[in-house]
Amino acid sequence: MTQKWEVPEILREVSGIVYMGNGQFACIQDEAGVIFIYNTQSGLIERQITFGAAGDYEGIALNGTTAYVVRSDGRVFEVTNIDTPKNKVSEFTTHLTANHNVEGLAFDQKNNRLLLAIKGEEAGAPDFKGIYAFDLAAKKLAEQPIMKLSLRDPQLSKLAKAKRKSLSKIWQPSEIAVHPVSGEIYLTEASNPQIFILNENGSIKKRYPLSKSQFYKPEGIAFSPAGELFISNEGKKEKGNIMAVQIKS
Q1: Per-residue pLDDT averaged across 230-245, rounded?
Q2: Fewer CB in a 10 Å sphere around the end CB: N or C, the chain?
Q3: pTM for the complete prediction?
Q4: Residue 133 in contact with residue 108, Cβ under 8 Å?
């Protein structure tokens, strides 16, 4: 950790962030259909953009001035012109459900798509969890995952908690992001705080355990255009926060 910003109380359950530049982040939290524009320099929420009713919102992505938010039941919300008061909200259904428990959302600029990562379970497929692609031109989610995160990946055998009774509990992604320089896909896990970097086939390239004392629940991950890494943590006894983080190879 190189820097830490505590967020206002309304963002105690911050569940997703995206970097906007100049110290600004667009943030969402678990319970409200609202995008909060938070400025780390002033420590204030500068604007709020309401896009939906109360619900379990888990991930946010940004393409220019258009934001996308995913709900845990797989619904995707598109919010245009977030830099102005004139927003248009569109909602898209997918085949994912609350059982999949979608927790991660990222913009994949190279392929003009969103990536959705699930924390829950795949129906009839207990050995993997999918990363799915939402085509931004067609506004449609592909039926099959573009990556399958194997719950039997050899890297997971190193985890002390990998002996849980349920295989699906071994790997529980909480957020996903695409590195703007390398193109690598990063995942966070909140229940057992850590960062994963994936190979192109979805296998684990690197795994970085995070300090539980510093990272209570790392629910959000974002990059600056230059590749600076930010992680947001839900609060418990302390406030939620956003951290600038450097990981050592």
Answers
A1: 93
A2: C
A3: 0.95
A4: yes
User: Which residues are paired to 29 by β-bridges?
Assistant: 14
Q: How confident is the model at residue 155 (pLDDT cuts 50, 70, 90)?
A: confident
